[in-house]
Specification:
- Helices cover about 35% and strands about 20% of the residues.
- By secondary structure, it is of the alpha+beta class.
- It has a five-stranded mixed beta sheet, sandwiched between helices.
- Helix 4 links the parallel strand 4 and strand 5.
- Helix 1 crosses helix 4.
Length: about 140
Amino acid sequence: MSDRRASSIATAYWTTHLGCSPHDLRILQQSCDPIEWQHGGSSVEQPCSGIFVGKQLVSIAGYEVWGGSIAHLSVITHPGYRRRGFGRAATAHVALHAIEAGLLPQYRTLESNVGSLRIAKSLGFRRYATSLAIRLNWTASGE
C-alpha cells in the first residue's frame, strides 16, 4: 500500500477516543481472537485512534505511558478488515499523538504476528531488543 493511500484512509476515517464508545470497542473485541485482543487491544481510557468504516469500529491503536517517557503502542484490526491499511493508519495517528506529547513511541509485538510486524516496518520502527517469555509448569508440591 502506498503512503498516499494510507494517509487518505487515515484522514477520511480516523477519530480519537472522543468518538469511540465502550460499546464500539466491545463489538470489535468480540470479533477478534481473545489472545490477539490480549496482545493488541486498547482501552478508550487511554489515548487511542479508531478507524471506522461507516459506523463500525474496524481498527484501534492506543498507547500506555511507561516510565513517563515511553508510549507503549498496541493495535488490533477486525479480522474482516485486515490488510487494507486500517491498522497502519490508526497506529500512525496514535504514534504521532505520542510524539507530539513528548513521548517515544515503542512498538512491541510477537515474532509470530506477521501482520503486526508488517505495520511496524512500514512505519519505520526498527528492532531494538528481543524478549523471551517462558512459562513453567509449577505445582504446589514442587514436582
